[in-house]
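Protocol step 4 of 6: structure prediction from sequence.
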Amino acid sequence: MSSLKHNNAGFTGLEAAIVLIAFVVVAAVFSYVVLGAGFFTTQKAQEAVHSGVLQATSSLELVGNVYGIQDPSNTAGIEYVNFSLGLAAGGTPVDVSKTVFIYSNETQLVTMTPPSTWTGPTYPSATGSWAISDVQNNPSSTFNAVLQPNEQFTITAQVGGSVATDIPANDIFTLEIRPSGGAAFSITRTVPAAIQGVNLMY
């Protein structure tokens, strides 16, 4: 019966070095892959947190009061709603031209139409439209629809124009404002019982 004998005399130091280098290279590649995946995951987590904070916080806010303008052809109704918008504290500039305004009351639900051009402050052109009618604290000499810090835009929304669409006395209406970035918010007001030329909505 023959016996098996192991002879390691041929296993030189050079071969041991090659095996060791192979192990080191494999370990280095594995470490690089693991670290890269970790960094990628951390970056995505940060992006998710920043996106969540942006969506949860409002970038626009109501400044001052909301006013209703009487319809000359229907003195018992409100044709225009005026209010001012500014940036929330610490907010970044907002392109108001990309903001969606939705008007609603008991009988209507209207997604309002913005102006077709933005050459300067103007007034709405038809029922169910809105426009930037005035600019306060404009930091530049040129007009654009991007609201800057400390700047204020007066928004005029033409909600009426006829007996069927004007807001009647004592009616409750809501304007929902949806900026392109940040949380949406609503303005809910009640028309006074006695409608004058200019009315404070409460």
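Step 5 (inspection) to follow. The radius of gyration is 32 Å.
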